[in-house]
Amino acid sequence: MEIVLALAIGILTASGLWLLFRPRTFQVVLGLALLSYAVNLFILAAGRLRIGAPPIVGKGTVDPAVYADPVPQALILTAIVISFATTALLLVVLLASRGLTGTDHVDGEEGEP
Amino acid sequence: MSGWMQHLIVAPILLPLAVSGLLLAFDERRRTLKRVVSLATVGVLVGIAVMLLWLVTDGFSLDPEAAPRVYRLGNWPAPFGIVLVADRLSALMLLLTSLLGFTALFYSMARWDRSGPRFHVLFLLLLTGVNGAFLTGDIFNLFVFFEVLLAASYGLVLHGSGTERTSASLHYITINIATSLLFLIGVAMIYATTGTLNMADLATRIPAVPSANLALLESGAAILGMAFLVKSGMWPLGFWLSRTYAAAAPPVAALFAIMTKVGIYIILRLTSLLFGDASGGAAGFTDNWLIWAGLATIAFGTIGILSARTLSQIAGHYLLVSSGILLASIGIGGHAVTAALLFYLVSSTLAVGALYLIIEPVARNVEEDDMVPGISEPVFDDEYTGALEEDEDEAGIVIPGTIAVLGGAFIFCTLLLSGLPPLSGFIAKFAIIDALFQHTSIAPTSWLLIALVICSGLATLIGLTRAGIDLLWTPAEDRPPRLSVIEVAPIGLLLATCLALMLSAGPIFLYMETTAIGLADRSAYIEAVLHPPHVGEAGS
User: Fold this and answer.
1) Cα–Cα distance between B505 and B96 in angstroms, integer?
2) Which residue in B has a C-alpha nearest to residue A13's C-alpha?
């Protein structure tokens, strides 16, 4: 399971970084989205990987060892909401920039080919 | 601390948040209402900041024993619940933020708040985020408040629209989203090695981290630090700053001067709390990095000032220089240096804020068309441009001798920024240099810092003098710039604050010194957060 998760994080980060350094704005947006998925998985791994353990503690005296750590999950939830909103805003700015400059290059002008 | 007074700590976050939500409900055309409400809100924020200052100092006393005040939301005990902590440093930063916010908002009423929709809402949201970042007691909420202030700042950079602003904000937003991801990676690594995100709890747990995990913890903290260093514009992470701030509307840029200081504040807080002398294996690993990075930033900013062709570029690079001086001073550390750097922080923030406000009126008569961006085709239907020409006539009373007023304010600003006597800029730089000499053996880096501080002051003087000659000594046949009272008053207020800073430098320095001692002595902070003296009363 660890190797699968590590591979997923690695591939997502690599693809995200590659796209982030591309000259087209839409590629940059997709790159940021991929990077945020990778970071969310990374946060999950930081809370130790557990299978089938609930994050919410039940009633009565309980053994905390059988529960998953809820803090990383809460952190991921916050991160998902925020990155969703900022990606939406970035898309709007992308469209505005495309409309104003007539190109989808990140600098607003075509570089030398 | 009883009754309603205990809820005062949460007010700087809740008040602007609630009012900005309320303002959304009103139509964009009810401009006067929005202006009055938002200006009153920020005015109340100034009052709240003063009261918080009174609260955390036990009635303006200089007793270093005055404990930080802790506010537990929902009265959950500290490492589990959310805490807000107000100590001397937070209260000082809150006051600085609300003062700068008040002047910038006042200035924006000259015409800038009309050049796009929902200016006041975004402005108040930005203040919410900044205040929250200064008050929060755990890294998780620091992330949330950071995102609030960033989201509001994206909107404000775009305020007024236009090609230059859209293009600059595209870079700004991309860089900041990527930075937020670094922030999250850092938080996750710190959580993985320590199991907590509460700052006070972290401070107690970091000395006990086994040495095998130390590298992981330090790299986590370093990645987290990158997020703040990008915000504070450290070289080589600060290339975005000058261009973005120059593209933003003047009142927005003036308010953004506090945003670089948010990064500085958090680095100061975290290095003193988490990686101070008592932190075991991880103690002081940040110091050398901060010193060298700070020195490089000063050098880069100095060259930038000399090569700058417009005033806003000078202001942007001056922000880099001040960030560099602050970072290097944080790295060197010690009570005296910390006190001096806090004084410099306050003085330089106010002065740069004033400079950003002066820029546009000064340049108005020279390059009428080039220097006033914001007139261009609207991007969205609900946007509203062309306010600049349309409202020229009701801009206020035309003061005769506007050049004299502007020139006086400009010279005042130049003296403040370049650190010439007798103004507060000089006192601040002198205090930093004096504090560096108080160490028994002066490190080579300290000598380098002193040299760079002096060189950067000279470069600022040269850059601003050159710009001032170009802009103010213009031929007499040009018509004098129009200037309204609404624009002069906030500039005057900011400069008067700097003057007050100079006149009462003694007491203020004593305050900064007690703040520095409080920062170095982590036990009071940890004690106040983790072992509250009266848990039972807190919920009453």
Assistant:
1) 16
2) B181
Q: What is the pLDDT of residue B398?
A: 46
B511 within domain boundaries: no
| Model pLDDT, residue A80 | 92
Tokens of B21: 């939500």
Q: How far does the CA of residue B169 sit from the closest CA of chain A (Å)?
A: 8
Q: Are B209 and B253 in contact (CB under 8 A)?
A: no
Residue B378 forms part of a structural domain: no
What SS3 string covers B275-333? CCCCCHHHCCCCHHHHHHHHHHHHHHHHHHHHHCCCHHHHHHHHHHHHHHHHHHHHHHC
Alpha-carbon gap, residue B148 to B134, rounded angstroms = 13
Nearest one of B43, B38, B46, B48 to B17, comparing CA atoms:
B38
The verdict on a CB contact (< 8 Å) between A42 and B185 is yes
Query: Residue B386: is its pLDDT beyond 50?
Result: no
Q: Cβ of B76 under 8 Å from any chain A Cβ? A: no
Which of A20, A78, A82 is the best residue to mutate to test the B interface, defined by the most B CB atoms within 10 Å of its own CB?
A: A82
Q: How many helices (H) and strands (E) does chain A have?
A: 3, 0
ipTM of this complex? 0.92
**CB distance B174–A108 less than 8 Å?**
no
User: Phi/psi at B478 (nearest 5 deg)?
Assistant: -65, 145
Task: Give domain status of residue A112, yes or no.
Answer: no
B462: how many CB neighbours lie within 10 A of its CB?
13
Residue A113 falls inside a structural domain: no
Contact B166 A97 (CB under 8 A): yes
**Contact predicate B87/B56, CB 8 Å:** yes
Determine the 3-state secondary structure of B112 from DSSP.
helix
What are the residue ranges of helices labelled H in B333-443?
Answer: 335-364, 387-390, 402-418, 424-437
Do the domain assignments include residue B351? yes
Locate the chain A residue with the closest alpha carbon to B80: A71
Structure token pair of residue B166: 């859209």
Contacts of B385 (CB under 8 A, 6+ apart): B115, B116, B160, B161, B374, B375, B376, B377, B378
Q: What is the pTM of this model?
A: 0.88
Cα dist from B426 to B151, B331, B351, B449, whole Å: 36, 22, 12, 16
Q: Looking at the 3D structure of chain B, how many domains does it have?
A: 1
Asked whether B42 and B101 are in contact (CB, 8 A), the reply is yes
User: How close does chain B come to A83, measured CA to CA in Å?
Assistant: 8
Contact list in B for residue A72 (CB cut-off 8 A) is 188, 191
The domain that holds A20 is classified in CATH as 1.10.287
> Cα separation of B322 and B13, whole Å?
27
With a cut of 50, say whether residue B430 has pLDDT above it. yes
A26: containing domain? 2-50+68-101
Whether the Cβ atoms of residue B483 and residue B402 lie closer than 8 Å to each other: yes
State residue B326's pLDDT score: 93
- B427 lies in some domain: yes
Rounded to whole angstroms, what are the CA distances from B149 to B129, B138, B180, B239, B303? 4, 17, 12, 20, 30
3-state secondary structure of B179: helix
Q: Is the pLDDT of residue B540 over 70?
A: no
Structure tokens given for A51? 């299978």
Our count of domains for chain A comes to 1
**Which one, of B373, B335, B370, B237, lies nearest residue B293 by Cα?**
B237
